[in-house]
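seq:
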Amino acid sequence: MLVTQVHWSSAGGWSPRPPQASCPGANLVLVFGSRALLTSGPVVSDIVQAYPNAIVAGCSTAGEICGDRVQDDTVVVTALKWGTSSSEVASVRLDEAASSEEAGSLLASRLPRHEALRHVLVFSDGLHVNGSALVQGLTRGLPSHLAITGGLSADGPRFENTVVIVGGQARSRVIVAVGLYGPDLRIGYGSLGGWDVFGPVRLITRSRGNVLYELDGQSALALYRRYQGEQARDLPASGLLFPLRVRVRDSDTGVVRTILGISATEDSMTFAGDIPEGAYAQLMRANFDRLIDGAVGAARVSAAAIGPESPDCALLISCVGRKMVLQQRVEEEIEGVRDVVGAGTILTGFYSYGEISPFTPTARCELHNQTMTVTTLSER
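struct:
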C-alpha cells in the first residue's frame, strides 16, 4: 500500500505539493476539512479531478489531523493506492429512511459484499443522526464478524451544519460507507477515553431515543445548568466538558454520551446516541493525563492487531470535547499515538461529534463519545 498526504489552507494553498503530484492511481482518498472550505470554492472539485479513479470520501470536522499536527480551517487529503486490495462505496440520504437505525440497515444493504469484505469505514452526518441507532442498523445488516469504524462529522464548536463527501460533493444529511476488500488487508482498531465520573449516580426517568428530559424526576437541562454555572450560557458547546456515562445495569462498564443540542422550549437535551429510560447516568469531567493515556491505549490495541511491523496508515477520530479540554496540549494525544505506531505511519483523521468502533477487537461495535478511536491499515 502506498500512502501520501497533502493539505490545503487559505494562507498557503496546497502543501507540500498539489494533489495532482501526489499518489497517481490512488484507489481511496480520505478528505477531512472545515465545513466552510468543503462547501465553498473549488477545493473538493480539485481533489476529485486530481484522483479520477479513486473513491473520495470524508467529512467536515472540528479539527483536522495531519501527521503529528492538529489543524483548524484546513483540508487534509490522504491518498491510498492499494496493492492487491480494493474499496467500494455506498451512501444513504437521511430522508430515505424513517429512522437512524433504518438508515444504517439501508446503507449496509447498498454496500457490495462478498467474502473478501474485511472492514467498513463510516462517515455520517453529525447533527441529525442518532449514532447508536445507526450502528445498530449497520451491524444488523452486515455479517456479524465484520468490524465497523468511523465517526460523526462535525462543525467545530458551532453545531450548525455538518457535511459528508460523497459523489464528488460535500452534502448535508448524508451517511457514507466505504468497504475495504482483500485477503491481504491487515486492520486493527481500538477506542478508549480517559474521563472521570463525579457526583451521584442518577436514574434516567424520562427520555426518548437520544433525547433526555429528566434525571431522578428533575429537569436534566436544569441540572446541567446548575453544575456548569456561568459556562451554561455556552450550551450546547460547553456540555462537551461534562459528558454523561450511561449504564443500563450496575455491572455495565457504560458508554459515554455527549450533547449535540438543547431545547429550552421542550426542556430537553439531545445526545449523539441513545439515553435509555430506566438506565443510570453520571456526570463526567476531564483528567488531562488520562485523556492522553486513553489515546495511547487505543493505539496499542489497534497496532497489536497489525503485528510487529508499523501500519501504513492510521485513521484517528477523536472527540471535539477532548480537543476543547486539552486545548494547547491537544497534539500530545496525537504524539502518543505516533509513539506507538512508529515514524513511518501516515496519520490522518479528525475531531468529531461521535466515534464508531468496538472498544477492542473482541467487543461489539458501538457509538462512543469523548474517546480516541484508532484504525490501523496495512497490506501484507
